[in-house]
Amino acid sequence: MNELMSRLRVLDMSRVFSGPWAGQMFADFGADVIKVERPVHGDDTRHQGFRMRDAEGEPTSETSSFVAMNRGKRSITVDLAQPAGQALVRKLAAQCDVLIENFKAGDLERYGLGYEAMREVNPRLVYCSISGFGQTGPYSSRPGYDPIFQSMSGLMAMTGAPDGTPGAGPQKVGYAVSDLTAGFYAIAATLAALHHRDTVSGTGQHIDIALLDAQIGAISHMAQNWFASGRQPPRLGTSSEITCPYQAFTCSDGDVMVAVGNDGQFRKFCAAIGLPELAADARFLTNPLRAAHRAELIALIAARLAPQPVRHWIDLLEAHGIPCGPINDFAQAFSNPQVVHREMRRTMAHPAIGEMPFVANPVKFSGTPVQYRRAPPLLGEHTDEILEALLGLDEHEIAALREARTV
Predict the structure, then answer these.
(1) Is the pTM of this model over 0.90?
(2) Over the chain, what is the mean pLDDT?
(3) What keywords appear on the UniProt entry (predicted)?
(4) Averaged pLDDT for residues 179-187
(5) Is residue 280 classed exposed, middle or buried when 0-12, 13-18 and 19+ CB atoms within 10 A define those classes?
(6) How many DSSP H helices and E strands does the chain contain?
(7) Torsion sign, CA atoms 220, 283, 234, 262
(8) Where are the alpha helices (DSSP H) in 205-361?
(9) How far apart are CA 72 and CA 32, in angstroms?
(10) Domain spans of the chain?
């Protein structure tokens, strides 16, 4: 475990994907992450996704969406609408280094739990707000989910099949990319703010992250192409506007993805597929020329690759050092020997599910390897533990809070 992170305590007041994703990363790295949830209902993702099954194959109360984002945390239920619940959160924040929240802008201020109020409670607190449109601006009060930010950022406009082809039109990415991108930015920003607190200022600060900003930031290289050319990146399916050949090709039994990144690789590629003359063709000598004459080049390559199976071309291209790969489904991805070697599918014991499979954290530390210390918590599983150990409440005080439905 990372000893520095083990001394870090995070109050995770977020729900759904972006904030919980950031909180889970801190938990993976060794921080004590306390997840605050609504009594009875809990995080919205407790009611989204597929029911995880136990050892007998029976569905449990736990969902795939929740367990994917919340391992390593302790769960406490608190009713934020009650003054007593707000007081509990302030007391918890006083003992934390980081607070993560993804309420709509201004919502927590109504409960006296916004940054300015929390700064009075704990000046060292790094308070990270993640919202759809940010804390300021004409859209700041609007709600939103991942597809909205994929569409508004320009991502969907350049994703999908080209115009004039079957299925043409904007497409969204197949997972909640805006949420997770915002979560990654939140992790980096929070670590930077903690470093500044501990080495420069001695005080925390407020971090304002918007999913729309994060998604635009993540596609900055494509926006830079537009800045340079004034030309909207077209939808090109699996191919690239600036590199060629760089796309999927249909083989006799499936598709193979080929990514030829430079002129040297193109010469090797042409030799490998038995078309060395293409490398000497004036239309295809350089990458810009190949991109400009994409239609002619792709037609020639596609005709060559179509008669043989995927495995034939992968073996041949790999032998020549050409980046390539099959288009895997999840069963194929997780049985891939490289993925197996990297232990990206792991299991852990869960009180309701039993032996629970999960996707491992991809970070490999040489000195402080990631340790999976806690399963995703049951709703309110650690409420009494946290109230007693952190806030010093006795059993009678905890019982009174339960009687009032504060926790």
Answers:
(1) yes
(2) 96
(3) Transferase
(4) 98
(5) exposed
(6) 18, 13
(7) negative
(8) 211-218, 220-229, 263-272, 277-280, 287-292, 294-305, 310-319, 330-335, 337-341
(9) 8
(10) 3-218+345-403, 246-334
Choose, from 28, 32, 97, 179, the residue flagged as catalytic: 179
Q: Is the dihedral of CA 243, 245, 250, 256 positive or negative?
A: negative
Per DSSP, what are the bridge partners of residue 350? 354
**Is 43 marked active-site?**
no
| Alpha carbon distance 123, 93 (integer Å) | 10
Q: What's the average model confidence in pLDDT over 342-358?
A: 97
Q: Give the integer Cα–Cα distance in Å for 260 and 282.
A: 18
Task: List, as own/partner pairs, every contact residues 156-159 make where C-beta atoms lie below 8 angstroms and the sequence separation is at least 24, other chains included.
Answer: 157/232, 157/233, 157/235, 158/222, 158/232, 158/233, 158/234, 158/235, 159/235
Q: Which residue has 């919502």 as its token pair?
A: 107
Task: Write the DSSP string, 24-42.
Answer: HHHHHTT-EEEEEE-TTT-
The owner of tokens 């690239």 is 240
**Encoding tokens for residue 74?**
């302790």
CATH class of 246-334: alpha beta
Q: Which CATH architecture has domain 3-218+345-403?
A: 3-Layer(aba) Sandwich (3.40)
193 pLDDT higher than 60: yes
CA 407/CA 395 separation, integer angstroms: 13
